[in-house]
Every structure is written in structure tokens, then in C-alpha cells.
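Quick question, first post here. What does this chain look like in 3D?
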Amino acid sequence: MKKILFVFVSIFLFLSCKEKVALAETATPEQKAEESVKAQNPEIEKFSRVLSSMTERCKAAIPNGNPEEFLADLHKVLDEEQKTHRSDDVDLLYLIDKKHNIGSDYEPKDLKPVKNNDLWNVSRNDLSLRPESYAALEELSRAALKDGIKLMVSSTYRSYKYQDGLFNRYVKQDGLALAERYSARPGTSQHQLGMAIDFGSITDDWGDTKMGKWVYNHGADYGWSLSFPQGYEDVTGYMWECWHFRYIGVEACRFQKKWFSDVQQFMLEFVDAWKKSE
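> Answer (accepted):
Ran it through. C-alpha cells below.
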């Protein structure tokens, strides 16, 4: 099917019925093609609404392409998430950031302890992950071992209370303005979801190590996504963290790379808006 620019998808969102009739009489071939696609797929209208609600930087990150191809990929993501969904816990792609929080009483269900073993090393003995993330860590670690690399897991699930103490300590150490650039307020940390890992030394040079380079190159193959990339502090709210990865699933990793310039925040915001759109 001929490629259709996203900009044409949004044209019809703002047109009245009368205007649409008028447009149909003088429409360009591209606009007629767009209208034909929308007639075949009613989700095009929803796509237009959700896309229009995204930030300008997010929209600029999305390449020109076929909306139906985009929607097909989106449904692969949602289907994968549904397979892991449990009614007593939050979704795999739950949006949590400086504007979207979670309650102080939230704790992931069935947390699994992350201890030293043949697959990975740990920096301390009080680590744990959600079952889905734990299974994905096992797959990631087995693959790394085949390439001669044993991963170091340094931080995983953090309770609201733990994050509160950590954030306040950083505020006392560096002041509020700086602390908020690298530490999350309690209730806004991906770590509270039990689906995020800090690997290795938790320092900027970790990304240049053999371990860091391997995770960067292969993490997405096992559903692990870099949360805070370099150059996107205005988007994520946080400074670059080369060591912080969140488990979002293989399809979601493919989706964000193909359609969102490989920026997790853009993808999660779109999925969240999609779920909330009527």
C-alpha cells in the first residue's frame, strides 16, 4: 500500500461533516487515499486523536509511514502485554513518570528475590523483580553468558518508602533542583513497578564497558529498553542513565525503535493515551 503521511491522517480530525463533503469534491489523490484507508479501518480516527494529543517533539520523532502498518504493530504490542496481564497488578506498560505516579501502598505481586547465581551477580542481597521481569532477566543473562559476559544487577524493585528515603538523602546532598534531575520522587519511580534494573557500576562509564555495550546491543531482543537516553532530559525528566533499563517486552521494544525513534517515553505516552482514548 502506498505510504501515507501522518499529517494527512490528522487533517480530518478537525473537519466538520460539511467540510468533509466539500473536501471530497476537491480532494487531492493523497487525501482521497487517506479517506479510503480511514473507511477501511475505523481505528484511523482514534489514531488521529491520540497522535494529535502527543507533544510536538514526540510527533516529530515519528517517521512518515502507513497508519495501518503502525496500528498493526501497536496491536502486536498490546497483544503481548495482554498475555502477561494479571488482574491483580498493573499493566506491563504502565506509565509512571514525573506526571504519572502510583500509590504509596503499591507493591508488585509475587516479587521474586534476585540473588547471586550462575546467571548473574548482584551488588546486594535485598533485590527483587516482578515475575515477568525476572524471567526476562534470566533470558537476557543466558544470552550474555553465551558471549562470555556475566551481568551485574545493582538495583531492582524499590518500595515507596525506600524511594522516599533515597530521594530525601539526595536532596540533602545536592539540593532539590539537582536531585530531581537524577532521582525520582516517591511514587514516580519505575523501580517501584518491579520492572526496572540498574546494571553494573551505575556510573556514566558503564555504557563503555563490555557488559554495557552488550546490553545496549542485545537488551531489546529480550524486551529490555533504555529508559533515560542521552539528549532527552526534557522528555523523560531525568539525566542520561546508561545503566537503567525497563522490561517492556520484545514487541514494545521493536515498536519504539521503529516508530518512536527508539525513545521509550514517547512510546509509553502514546500507548497510555491510546488506552484512555474512547
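Confidence is low (pLDDT under 50) at residues 1-5, 10-23.
Strands lie at 112-114, 120-122, 127-129, 151-155, 196-199, 224-228, 241-247.
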